[in-house]
Automatic annotation (TrEMBL):
Organism, scientific name: Sphingomonas rosea
Family label: Belongs to the peptidase S46 family.
Keywords on record: Aminopeptidase, Hydrolase, Protease, Serine protease, Signal
Protein name as annotated: Dipeptidyl-peptidase
Spans traversing the lipid bilayer: none
InterPro entries: Pep_S46, Peptidase_S1_PA
Signal peptide: 1-20
Pfam families: Peptidase_S46
Major enzyme class: hydrolase
SUPFAM superfamilies linked: Trypsin-like serine proteases
Length: 686
C-alpha cells in the first residue's frame, strides 16, 4: 500500500483509497512496521510493538500507559476526574486542591474503575460470519450475538481476572477475539488541581495552543499489593524536539470513515443534528443547576465537562460535513472504489450492490433513530441511579435465559464487568439525577411527540418533572448494600422491590426493548449485512493492508511533533510554561491553579508544556501514552483541535493534530509544584 502524502482533497478518504503517511488507527496485529519506519526514519520491530501493547492500558472509555515496574499508570487528569470526584467531599475537595499523597500507603481506590491490558488477539471471522449466514433481521443479530457470547465464554469462562470480547472490524469484514487482563483494584496515586489540567476551560478546549498539565497517575493493585509490571515504558523527561517521531497507543472510541456517502448524509441530516440539539439543552440545564449553589457546582462538575466535550466534538464534526472540499474528497474516493468493483464482474456478482442497499435503508434509519436514541442510547439522561436500575432490572431478566439468548451486554463473559460497576461504592447526588431524568423525559416526549403511544407508557399521567422528582428522591439505590441484595436476589427480588426506580424500569421494559428490537432488526441487521459485502469488496480491491474504523479497542498511530498553518496563521508545535504565565489573567477560566502558580519562580519559563502531533487520534485516545522510537514515554495525549473532529470521517494531514502534555512538563510540576519526590524516584528521575 502506498504511504506517500496525498493532496488534501484526496487525503480526506473514507478508506478504501491508499492512506496518507501518518494516517491510520492501526490494530497491533496489522501495524505497517515497514511503512512507519520508512516514513519516520525509525527502526521499530515486532518486539517493540509487543512491549508497547503490553504497556498500554484501557481505563473505561479512555487510555493510559504503564510507566514503572510497580503498576504505575500515566493518564490524564480528566480521565481520572471521576475517581477524584468520587473521593472528594465538599469539605475535602480534591478537584480544587489536587490529590497529592506522599507515599503509596495514601493511595486510594477508585470506585468501580477497571483497567485492562490486551494480551492476545485471535481471528474468529469464519465462526462469526458462518453464524449469520443465510439469516436476516432479528434472527441475524441474535445468531451473531449468541456466537460472540459463546466464543467469549469459551475463551474466558468464569475467570474474573480476564475479559474476552469479540470485536467487529471493517464493519463486518473481520471479527477478532480480544483477550484482556483485568484489574479491578485501581488506585489514585496523583492528580493536580482540576484547574491545572483544564486551564482555559471550554474556551481552550479542542484548541491549540494549549497550556494544560492534564496528567494523573493511577496504580494497579492485586491482592492488596501493587502489580508487578516489568515491561513498562521508561520515563524520558527530555524536552521534545520539533519533527520528532512519535507513536500514540490507546483505545480510540469510534470513527465512521467506512460509511458510504448515503450513510454520511444521514449523519449530517438526522443523527448529528438530533444529538447536538439535545446535548445543548442538557448543557444549559446542568449549568443552570450548577449556578444555584456551591454544592450543585461541585456535584455537576464532571457531567458539565463531559457534555461540553460532547457538544464541541459534535460541532467540529458538523463543520466538516458542510466543508465542500472535505465532502468532495470522500465522494471522489467512493466513486473510484465503486468503479473498481464495477470493472470486476466476478466481484460484482459476489457482493451485489451494497451501496444501493444502504442508500435504500436510510429512510428507515431516519424514521427509527430518534426513538432508539432517546429510549436506548440516551435513556436516563446520564443519571447514575437510572443506570444502576437498568442493569439490575435487565440483568435479572437476562440471567434467567441461556447466555446465548441474552442481550449481549449480559452474557456470561460480560457479567463480571456489569457487577463490578453495579456494586462499586461511590457517592450519589439525587438532586443531579433529578435534573438529568427530567431533561431526558421531557426531551423524549418532545422528540417523539405527545401522541407517540410509547410516551404514555413511559410517563403515565405524570409530568416529566414530577416523575423525575419521585424517582430520584424515592429510590434507595444509592446504597450499595441495596443494590447488592437486588443483584444477588435476581428476578424475584426485583419484582418484589417497592423501589420506585426499579418499578419504573420494570414498567418500561416492553417499550424500550421493543424499540431496540425493531431498530436492530430493520436497521442494524441489514446495515451489517451490506457492510460485510462492502468489506469483502475492499479486501478484494485493496488487499488486507487497510486499517479498520476505530471501535474502542487498542490501536497504534504514528506521526511527528509539528505545528501547522491555517488561514495564514502559523501555529507552532509547542507551548511553554512562560506562555502559560502570559496567557493567565487571574480570572476564570484563565486563572492558574494555586499550587502551580506558587511554583512560577521555580519552573523555568522555557519548559515545554504541551505539543501538537500529526498522529491520528479521536475521542477515547485521552490518556494514550506518546512514545518515542526507543519505546520511552514522552507524554500523554489529552485533546485534539476542533478542526481535527473531522477525523471521525476522514484524515486530513495538514490539519489533523493531537495535543499532548509532555513528560517534561509533568516532571516539572511533580517536582516544583506538588512535592511528589517519591513518584519522581519511582519514574527514575533525578
Amino acid at each position: 500500500m502506498r504511504h506517500s502524502r496525498l493532496l488534501i482533497a484526496t487525503a480526506l478518504t473514507m478508506i478504501p483509497a491508499a492512506a496518507a503517511a501518518e494516517e491510520g488507527m492501526w490494530t497491533f496485529d496489522n501495524f505497517p512496521i515497514a511503512a512507519a519506519n520508512r516514513d519516520l526514519g525509525t527502526s521499530i520491530d515486532q518486539k517493540w510493538l509487543d512491549k508497547v501493547r503490553l504497556a498500554s492500558v484501557r481505563i473505561g472509555g479512555a487510555s493510559g500507559g504503564l510507566v514503572s515496574p510497580d503498576g504505575l499508570v500515566l493518564t490524564n487528569e480528566h480521565v481520572a476526574s471521576g475517581c477524584v470526584e468520587d473521593l472528594s467531599t465538599p469539605e475535602r475537595n480534591y478537584v480544587q486542591t489536587g490529590f497529592t499523597p506522599q507515599s503509596r500507603a495514601e493511595e486510594r481506590k477508585c470506585p468501580g474503575t477497571v483497567a485492562e491490558v490486551l494480551t492476545a488477539i485471535t481471528d474468529v471471522t469464519a465462526r462469526m460470519q458462518a453464524a449469520g449466514a443465510g439469516l436476516s433481521g432479528e434472527a441475524f443479530t441474535r445468531a451473531r450475538s449468541a456466537e460472540a457470547g459463546k466464543i467469549e465464554a469459551e475463551a474466558c469462562g468464569a475467570d474474573k481476572s480476564r475479559r474476552c470480547q469479540v470485536v467487529t472490524l471493517y464493519r463486518g469484514g473481520q471479527f477478532k477475539l480480544y483477550t484482556y487482563r483485568r484489574y479491578t483494584d485501581v488506585r489514585l496515586a496523583f492528580a493536580p488541581e482540576h484547574r491545572a489540567a483544564a486551564f482555559g476551560g471550554d474556551l481552550d478546549n479542542f484548541a491549540f495552543p494549549r497550556f494544560a498539565v492534564d496528567a494523573a497517575f493511577l496504580r494497579l493493585y492485586e491482592n492488596g499489593q501493587p502489580v508487578k509490571t516489568p515491561g513498562y515504558l521508561r520515563w524520558n523527561a527530555a524536552p521534545p524536539q520539533e519533527n520528532q517521531p512519535v507513536f500514540v497507543s490507546g483505545s480510540p472510541g469510534a470513527t465512521q470513515r467506512l460509511l458510504t456517502q448515503a450513510q454520511l448524509r444521514t449523519v449530517q441530516d438526522v443523527t448529528l443534528p438530533l444529538e447536538q440539539l439535545i446535548n445543548s439543552e442538557l448543557r444549559g440545564r446542568l449549568l443552570q443547576f450548577a449556578a444555584q449553589n456551591e454544592q450543585n457546582a461541585f456535584v455537576a462538575g464532571q457531567a458539565i465537562s463531559g457534555i461540553e466535550n460532547t457538544y464541541k466534538r459534535g460541532f467540529g464534526r458538523q463543520q466538516s460535513l458542510i466543508d465542500q472540499r472535505f465532502m468532495a474528497g470522500r465522494a471522489k474516493a467512493e466513486a473510484e472504489f465503486r468503479a473498481r468493483v464495477a470493472a470486476d464482474a466476478a466481484l460484482r456478482q459476489l457482493i451485489g450492490d451494497p451501496w444501493t442497499e444502504l442508500a435504500n435503508l436510510q429512510p428507515e434509519v431516519a424514521r427509527l433513530y430518534p426513538g432508539y436514541y432517546m429510549l436506548e442510547g440516551r435513556a436516563g439522561g446520564g443519571s447514575q441511579l437510572y443506570n444502576w436500575a437498568e442493569d439490575l432490572v435487565r440483568g435479572a431478566i437476562e440471567k434467567t435465559k441461556p447466555s446465548g439468548e441474552r442481550l449481549p451486554e449480559y452474557g456470561d463473559a460480560r457479567l463480571a464487568a456489569v457487577e463490578n460497576g453495579l456494586l462499586a461504592t461511590r457517592p450519589t447526588y439525587p438532586a443531579l439525577d433529578e435534573v438529568q431524568l427530567a431533561w431526558w423525559l421531557s426531551k423524549t416526549r418532545e422528540i417523539l411527540t405527545v401522541d407517540d403511544p410509547r410516551i404514555a407508557q413511559v410517563l403515565g399521567k405524570e409530568s416529566p418533572e414530577g416523575l423525575a422528582a419521585r424517582l430520584a428522591r424515592g429510590t434507595k439505590l444509592g446504597d450499595p448494600a441495596v443494590r447488592k441484595a437486588l443483584w444477588d436476589g435476581g428476578l424475584p427480588a426485583i419484582k418484589a422491590s417497592t423501589d420506585p426506580l426499579i418499578q419504573f424500569l420494570l414498567r418500561i421494559q416492553d417499550v424500550t426493548r421493543a424499540t431496540r428490537t425493531e431498530y436492530e432488526a430493520k436497521v442494524q441487521a441489514p446495515t451489517d449485512r451490506a457492510s460485510e459485502a462492502l468489506a469483502k469488496a475492499r479486501f478484494a480491491v485493496f488487499g488486507t493492508s487497510l486499517y479498520p474504523d476505530a471501535t474502542g479497542t487498542l490501536r497504534l498511530t504514528y506521526g511527528r511533533l509539528r505545528g501547522w498553518t491555517y488561514q495564514g496563521r502559523v501555529i507552532p508545535y509547542a507551548t511553554t510554561f512562560g506562555g502559560l504565565w502570559q496567557r493567565a489573567t487571574g480570572a476564570e477560566p484563565f486563572d492558574v491553579a494555586p499550587r502551580l502558580l506558587a511554583a512560577k519562580d521555580r519552573i523555568p519559563a522555557s519548559t515545554i508544556l504541551d505539543v501538537a502531533a500529526s498522529t491520528d487520534t479521536i475521542g477515547g485516545s485521552s490518556g494514550s501514552p506518546a512514545i518515542n522510537a526507543k519505546g520511552e514515554i514522552i507524554g500523554a495525549n489529552f485533546d485534539s483541535t476542533v478542526l481535527t473532529q473531522r477525523n471521525a470521517y476522514g484524515y486530513d494531514p495538514e490539519l489533523n493534530r493531537s495535543v499532548l502534555v509532555t513528560t517534561t512538563a509533568i516532571t516539572a510540576a511533580l517536582r516544583h509544584a506538588y512535592g511528589q519526590s517519591h513518584l519522581l524516584a519511582e519514574l527514575g528521575v533525578r
